[in-house]
Specification:
Shape of chain A: elongated
Oligomer: heterodimer
CATH architecture of chain A: Up-down Bundle
Helix content of chain B: over 70%
Number of helices of chain B: 5
CATH architecture of chain B: Up-down Bundle
CATH class of chain A: Mainly Alpha
Structural class of chain A: mainly alpha
Structural class of chain B: mainly alpha
CATH superfamily of chain A: Fumarate reductase/succinate dehydrogenase, transmembrane subunit
Number of strands of chain B: 0
Radius of gyration of chain B: 21 Å
CATH class of chain B: Mainly Alpha
Largest interface: A-B, 39 and 39 residues
Order of helices and strands of chain B: HHHHH
Strand content of chain A: under 5%
Order of helices and strands of chain A: HHHH
Number of strands of chain A: 0
Distance between the termini of chain B: 69 Å
Shape of chain B: elongated
Strand content of chain B: under 5%
Chain lengths: 140, 138
């Protein structure tokens, strides 16, 4: 075994011999990819289900009813969360690319968008789930 | 050391190939991701807000709701723009991911062909539906 193949111990001060450096920079990149792929596959399904308006009102209404199911409703909140992260982190990527101070402030910008994400998602999830909650547990 | 090239060194076989047939396609793709991303931010987040949160959210959506929306050219253009930009943005994004993770040329080619086929289908079908939608269909 050559020494070049031995993984170096993780180090916070040195860059190390790996392309993947961990921390906020790498994990936001990973999350950006995952949320993007997720949204891509949802878009595929969503264009197909919307296309049913060309078939008949009944078939469209039937497929849209699945979106109103409590479990699918939860998944919609997840989708909105994924899209919102992708959008906010996309702005951060643009700032890193085009703003002269962007690369130096990339970590602070990540925590900034995480804060915005939480601030939007808390009321967003509340309003999206309110109806389902009422149906499941009554209007207590 | 194993045969991993230094990135952008211009020494490896794939780099040589790239240098000979160099175009600006990758630059335009990179720029398109940023421009379409900003536009999609408004279009998609607006769409999600209207469809999932405002005025009863997803519970109020049915065939009649779509009929009401698409009677307005404003929402037709909104949805059409969103469809094209989102599908192209997603296709370029997945193309990057395929390029990053596939190792065999044949796998890469097949995955990209599947991706492009799906994209053309989705854009064509979505566009057709927006333009030929008939609220009085029986």
């Amino acid at each position: 075994m050559s020494t070049g193949m031995t993984p170096r111990p993780p180090s916070r001060t040195k860059l190390g011999g790996t392309l993947y450096r961990g921390r906020e920079g790498m994990w936001s990149w990973v999350a950006h990819r995952i949320t993007g792929v997720l949204t891509f596959f949802f878009l595929f399904a969503h264009v197909l289900d919307t296309a049913l308006v060309r078939v008949s009102p009944e078939s469209y209404d039937r497929v849209i009813d699945t979106y109103k199911n409590p479990l699918v409703n939860l998944m919609e909140i997840g989708l909105v969360g994924a899209v919102l992260f992708h959008a906010l982190n996309g702005l951060r990527v643009i700032a890193v690319d085009f703003w002269s101070r962007g690369p130096r402030l990339q970590r602070q910008m990540l925590w900034m968008i995480v804060a915005v994400w939480v601030l939007v998602m808390v009321p967003g999830a509340f309003f999206m789930f309110r109806h389902t909650f009422t149906v499941l547990f009554g209007s207590g | 050391m194993s045969g991993i090239e230094t990135p952008r060194s211009g020494t490896g076989r794939s780099n040589q190939r790239r240098i000979r047939g160099r175009t600006n396609t990758e630059l335009y793709a990179w720029l398109f991701m940023r421009v379409s991303g900003v536009l999609l931010m408004m279009l998609v987040l607006g769409h999600l807000l209207i469809m999932n949160i405002l005025d009863g959210g997803v519970q109020r959506i049915n065939f009649g709701f779509v009929a009401g929306r698409w009677s307005s050219p404003f929402w037709q253009v909104w949805d059409l723009l969103m469809l094209w930009l989102a599908q192209l943005h997603g296709t370029i994004g997945l193309r990057t991911i395929i390029n990053d993770y596939t190792r065999r040329d044949q796998t890469r080619f097949l995955l990209k062909m599947a991706l492009y086929t799906a994209s053309v289908l989705v854009i064509a079908l979505g566009t057709l539906v927006i333009f030929t939608y008939d609220p009085n269909i029986t």
